[in-house]
Amino acid sequence: MITDLQNILSTNIKGMKRSAIRELLKFLGQPGLISFSGGFPSPLSFPIEELKSIIAEVMENEAAFALQYGTTEGDDLLRTMLANRYKANGIDVTKDNIIITTASQQALDLISKMFIDPGDDVIVGLPSYLGALQAFGSYGANMIGIPMDDEGEDPNLMEEALKDLASKGKKPKFIYLIPDFQNPTGITMSERRRKEMLELAHKYDVLILEDSPYRELRYEGETQRTLYELDGTGQVVILGTFSKIFCPGFRIGWVVGNPDVLDKIVVGKQATDLCTPPFTQRIAARYMEKGYLDPKIEDIKKMYSVKQKVMLESLEKYMPEEMKWTHPQGGLFLMVTGPEDLDTNALLLECIKEANVAYVAGNSFFCNGKGYNTMRLNFSYESIETNIEGCKRLGSFFKKVLQK
């Protein structure tokens, strides 16, 4: 091994940090551990039998295509199927508005590569998705966090940030939003708030990056129109993924946007992985073509809505009264907030050791280094029984902590 490894590392890698969520996966093999940490779909949601048949068909009839290199833009059949799905939901796009990525995390990286130079400003939620913060931070972005209320990012604080930048002759490269069942809070942005965000984006001429991995997992309430649909001018780029509604192991995501934006993403992707695997793309396309996806999503929603209800009821029953939490209408997560002097990051390993329960400490989601009194809980992965037991253990642990 060379002696000066640290000296030859790039500035980018030196600035990167390990994912707090990925690091927690090391504990998943611990006997009896109940994990509320990762954003894992339930294994019961995977369409195993249907995929066995489709994989066999693809290998029988389309092996030459599926096992070969593919186009950087993605499988035409899959892009067409996705475009048709958007059209059915009132969003007017064609396959030319879509590029397939190796999951939405790659899309976040490619967009960061495309727009961010070291020191550039990017506006994010406070809190916001850890993977996005990692992607933006890896390219040297200066992230400006906008606090949230029950409807999403505060528009007054958003305008203050935009106005302050404009007074310095600057503007952010983009505004990053997760309007539906936001990660980590579970909050859904109201349509009124979405329109306010668009008004600010138009007023200050800023691109909006709309991350939409959970949108179809709604269990109650009214569906809100996407920012992309409300905008209609090409000033919004939307990210989608199959990871929460199909199979995360397939690593299929996509970007919907103006062809001029997609062209630059294609260039960046060619330097990254050339193409997303044609094999998994074609399997996903055939799965959609056979009409399996929508019924599967309905099954998933029924499963997760019960788990969400059970977790909310269990938190109410077992958690100390000093702790409060969000009540999402869908998605996979909710966020718990404790007293200001609570440090969930410092308590995490102790909780795993004593209560055999894992969560994600909330400070990972705050670009300003705060949020130590919060934690994110996932309700989709564990069973109903372990959701209840996990909340019981968690409540007991934090009652002891707060008594001290």
The gist of it:
One of its GO terms (biological process) is alpha-amino acid metabolic process. The chain is α/β, with parallel strands linked by helices. It has helices spanning 5-8, 11-15, 20-24, 48-61, 63-66, 76-88, 103-115, 130-138, 155-167, 191-204, 227-231, 259-270, 278-289, 293-318, 344-355, 384-403, and strands spanning 34-35, 98-101, 121-126, 142-149, 152-153, 174-177, 207-211, 236-241, 253-256, 324-325, 333-337, 357-358, 360-361, 374-378.
Count of all domains: 2
- N-to-C terminal Cα separation, in Å? 48 Å
Shape: globular
Strand order of the largest sheet: 2-9-8-7-6
Structural class: alpha/beta
Task: Could you tell me the CATH topology label of the largest domain.
Answer: Aspartate Aminotransferase, domain 2
| Average predicted confidence as pLDDT | 95
* Tally of DSSP helical segments: 16
CATH architecture of the largest domain: 3-Layer(aba) Sandwich
- The portion of residues forming beta strands comes to 5-15%
What's the CATH superfamily of the largest domain, by name?
Type I PLP-dependent aspartate aminotransferase-like (Major domain)
Number of strands: 14
Order of helices and strands: HHHEHHHEHEHEEHEHEHEEHHHEEHEEEH
